[in-house]
Write a structure and sequence with these properties.
Layout lengths: L2 H17 L11 H18 L7 E6 L9 E4 L9 H13 L2 H12 L14 H16 L2 H15 L2 E2 L4 E2 L6 H4 L2 E4 L6 H8 L5 H17 L10 E4 L6 E5 L11 H18 L2 H21 L21 H14 L5 H18 L30 E2 H18 L1
Antiparallel strand pairs: 1-2, 1-8, 3-4, 5-6, 6-7
The structure holds glycine (GLY).
Glycine binds next to loops.
Length: about 400
């Protein structure tokens, strides 16, 4: 493509992003109806979880599975998704007020408590505790949930390396990457540190979170606002060594969920810090995602990796769309009206697409959504229902419903 053509294409993409149109589905979205659908699927999922074990957490329903119910995994620190199902139950309870759902949420949440005071296996302790204990605390104000979350924050903080300025995301992979590794997903877990600092856990936790966000902002992004999945640092000097991928198509590609974690993570960091640097950054990271989405996808749901050379023949990742939709609804609350409207429109279009029969499982299984992709390079959970796609979908719907009200 010659330079003029490239410039023209860039301009057209930018315009489509600015107007929030993207020539995508304009299916109307009824957030309340979609939330009722989620509550119905949760009821069905609970029925299918028989005999019920509160230490077995729903994880996925794979393409080709013939059963309606979830495949479950044991709630251990190595199972990073352990907190999502309790979180889904808490949010279904939030929507319905059904006390039976609250009881189930409490029981599944309780089985994760032991992780709060064991040595941290990795950064995913944040995902596990934020989605279960923090969600439960927000909804019930239960002092025990607060105490467990505070303990977990202290445990998570032990992964921080002050020389580097970030958490060591995967202690088990230091040898593989040749240094201290920090993954973009880790941004989400800063919420536990920020929250703890505001709830009696000590200001040092906030300092660690801010340092992590600043260091990541400095090294983990390319000039266009796209991000690496993994940043590798020298453990002893703190020097940045390289950016690589773990779950993306290539080191330089845009792994959609990685970019989604960045959008969600920096929006949350701005919520706690009100530091304009983070807001400016997240807007750039978001606009980069939206431009690439418009250029590569035939709807508002991204390919699992925006650089997969198969283009629209490549699997999608509904989870990335749900994460971004949830983040955009929050981000819309931090910007002036024209941009707020633009972000909200994008979020609604993403949720509208996710709420069509193409992406909703309906009666075919108990999950909310299909077409998520977990770890494509490992050949795992490709084009599947995955519990975290459901978690961010219901969270985004609740956020939207709240602002509509
Ligand atoms: N945190 C792992 C993933 O996003 O797949």
């Amino acid at each position: 493509m010659n330079v003029k053509k490239k410039e023209l294409l860039g301009l057209l993409l930018l315009l489509s992003v600015m107007w929030g149109s993207c020539a995508r589905s304009n299916a109307p979205l009824d957030a309340d109806e979609a939330l009722d659908y989620c509550a119905h699927q949760v009821e069905r999922a609970l029925e299918a979880l028989q005999p019920r074990s509160y230490t077995m957490m729903p994880r996925n329903i794979l393409a080709g599975d013939t059963q309606e119910g979830w495949n479950c995994r044991e709630a251990i620190p190595q199972e990073w998704c352990s907190g999502f199902w309790p979180g889904v139950l808490w949010m279904a309870y939030d929507h319905t007020g059904d006390e039976a759902l609250r009881t189930e949420a409490e029981r599944y949440t309780a089985s994760l408590e032991y992780m709060a005071s064991r040595p941290a296996y990795d950064h995913d302790l944040g995902f596990i505790i934020i989605n279960s204990f923090l969600k439960g605390y927000e909804l019930t104000g239960d002092a025990h949930y607060r105490e467990v979350a505070l303990r977990a924050a202290d445990t998570l903080a032990t992964l921080c390396n002050p020389t580097v300025g970030t958490m060591l995301s995967w202690p088990r992979h230091v040898g593989d990457y040749g240094g201290h590794n920090t993954i973009m997903d880790n941004m989400i877990n800063l919420e536990l540190l920020f929250w703890a600092a505001e709830n009696g856990g000590g200001n040092h936790l906030r300092d660690l979170a801010v340092a992590h966000a600043e260091t990541t902002m400095q090294h983990h992004f390319r000039p266009d606002g796209s991000c690496y999945h993994v940043a590798v640092y020298d453990t002893l000097t703190g020097d940045f060594i390289k950016g690589v991928t773990h779950q993306g198509y290539s080191d330089e590609s845009m792994w959609s969920r990685g970019q989604a974690w960045a959008i969600y993570g920096y929006t949350m960091v701005y919520r706690f810090t009100r530091d304009e640097r983070f807001l400016t950054h997240v807007r750039k990271v978001t606009d980069c995602y939206l431009q690439r989405l418009a250029a590569t996808s035939d709807d508002n749901i991204p390919l699992w990796d925006m650089d997969d050379p198969r283009g629209t023949a490549a699997p999608k990742d509904a989870s990335a769309a749900a994460i971004v939709a949830s983040a955009l609804i929050e981000l819309a609350g931090y910007v002036e009206e024209a941009d707020a409207q633009r972000y909200r429109t994008h979020a609604e279009q993403m949720l509208a697409d996710l709420s069509t029969p193409q992406y909703q499982c309906g009666e075919s299984s108990v999950a909310f959504l299909r077409h998520a992709t977990g770890h494509h390079p490992a050949g795992s959970e490709i084009d599947a229902s995955i519990i975290y796609a459901d978690y961010y979908y219901i969270e985004a719907l609740l956020r939207l419903h709240r602002i509509e009200e």
